[in-house]
């Protein structure tokens, strides 16, 4: 055994140096993000989108795992309605839209305020806007559902500025500084954001008092989910949305926000509203609500599939791995 004093301290020193290096890198990344916010505010939306869009395309072509996953899921879901040759373009543009999502947050800090947001679209269309305000006044519980589609981070901002005060479930970012930054911007219009680990309690509290909640209902639920199809592919959907609506007598609004003309201009679309009176007497309300909202999300995605997050394992990791295995089997053999 090595009894030299330094041998006992070496692991501690290496761990300390590693933590210091990680903290330094994190601080540098936070500083770089803050500077990006300044640059984007000076450049304005048009130049910001042009620069980040080109960077996004370069990055997408370098990241083979993301590109392969995106194109495989995109082709599996859209093969019946899109030409095979269009799949790479759709998947690449979807990645660019996600890169623009970061730019959107930074531009929102500068441009989206109570007296200016209307310049950039994002209005809730009629008659849904009036209906949602009326439901809020009457104390009618409402669940607004969306997908990993378009600039979904901005949806709470536009809702709040139009008087819809929603409790919004969100997935915290691993970088605590960026997470606080993103949360501060998204809550600025009056919506409340709470992390997924608090959702079970907070969603019930809001709906029980006749409030409005907003949820990204776009996940594979593994073994305990409800067997369904999404974009023609088998998956399992979470029962939680249907259960919440059934328990609290909530209306369910299937909606999303998307970019218009690849610029800092947006529109909110509503694909369906599932009113309590429509499912109150059906045999299985949870299954009815789940099927309805999935069909609504499909409708939104198919209107512009370039804004859907195809890199997200929507049908589960096992499905992604099976697609990869099928691709390898069908690939032409390489000559020695």
Folded structure, characterized:
- 54% of the residues lie in helices and 14% in strands.
- The model is unreliable at 1-29 (pLDDT under 50).
- It is globular and about 50 Å long.
- The termini are far apart.
- The chain has 2 domains: 9-104, no CATH class; 116-304.
- With 336 residues, it is an alpha/beta fold.
- The protein has helices spanning 5-62, 64-78, 87-111, 128-138, 155-161, 176-186, 199-208, 240-248, 276-279, 285-303, 317-330; strands spanning 142-146, 166-170, 192-195, 212-216, 226-230, 233-237, 251-259, 266-274.
- Strand 2 (166-170), helix 6 (176-186) and strand 3 (192-195) form a beta-alpha-beta unit.
- The strands form 2 sheets. It has a 6-stranded mixed β-sheet with strand order 3-2-4-1-7-8, with helices on both faces. The protein has a two-stranded antiparallel sheet with strand order 5-6.
* Helix run count: 11
Tell me the span between the first and last alpha carbons.
Answer: 51 Å
- Low-confidence parts, pLDDT < 50 over ≥5 residues? 1-29
Describe the biggest sheet? 6 strands, mixed
By secondary-structure content and strand pairing, the structural class works out as: alpha/beta
Q: How many beta-strand elements?
A: 8
Order of helices and strands: HHHHEHEHEHEEEHEEHHH
Percent helix range: 40-55%
| Rg computed from alpha carbons, rounded to a whole number of angstroms | 22 Å
Mean pLDDT: 88
Shape call: globular
Q: State the assembly state of the protein chains.
A: single chain
The proportion of strand residues reads 5-15%
Strand order of the largest sheet: 3-2-4-1-7-8
The figure for the number of domains is 2
């Amino acid at each position: 055994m090595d009894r030299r004093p330094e041998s006992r301290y070496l692991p501690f020193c290496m761990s300390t140096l590693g933590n210091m290096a990680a903290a330094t890198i994190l601080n540098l990344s936070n500083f770089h993000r803050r500077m990006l916010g300044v640059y984007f505010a000076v450049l304005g939306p048009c130049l910001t989108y042009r620069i980040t869009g080109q960077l996004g395309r370069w990055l997408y072509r370098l990241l083979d795992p993301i590109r392969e996953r995106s194109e495989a899921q995109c082709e599996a879901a859209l093969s019946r309605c899109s030409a095979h040759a269009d799949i790479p373009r759709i998947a690449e543009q979807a990645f660019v839209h996600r890169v623009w999502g970061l730019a959107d947050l930074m531009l929102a800090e500068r441009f989206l305020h109570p007296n200016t947001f209307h310049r950039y679209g994002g209005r809730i269309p009629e008659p849904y806007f009036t209906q949602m305000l009326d439901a809020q006044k009457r104390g009618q519980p409402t669940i607004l559902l969306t997908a990993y589609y378009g600039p979904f981070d901005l949806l709470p901002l536009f809702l709040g500025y139009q008087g819809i005060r929603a409790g919004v479930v969100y997935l915290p970012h691993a970088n605590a500084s960026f997470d606080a930054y993103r949360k501060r911007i998204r809550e600025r219009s009056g919506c409340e954001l709470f992390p997924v680990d608090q959702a079970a309690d907070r969603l019930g509290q809001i709906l029980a008092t006749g409030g409005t909640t907003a949820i990204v209902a776009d996940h594979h639920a593994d073994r305990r989910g409800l067997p369904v199809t999404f974009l023609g592919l088998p998956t399992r959907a979470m029962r939680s949305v249907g259960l919440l609506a059934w328990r609290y007598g909530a209306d369910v609004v299937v909606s999303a926000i998307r970019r218009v003309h690849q610029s800092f201009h947006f529109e909110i679309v509503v694909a369906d509203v599932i009113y309590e009176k429509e499912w109150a007497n059906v045999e299985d309300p949870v299954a009815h609500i789940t099927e309805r909202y999935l069909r609504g999300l499909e409708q939104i995605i198919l209107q512009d599939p370039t804004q859907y997050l195809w890199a997200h394992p929507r049908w589960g990791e096992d499905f992604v791995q099976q697609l990869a295995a099928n691709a390898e089997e069908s690939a032409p053999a390489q000559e020695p």
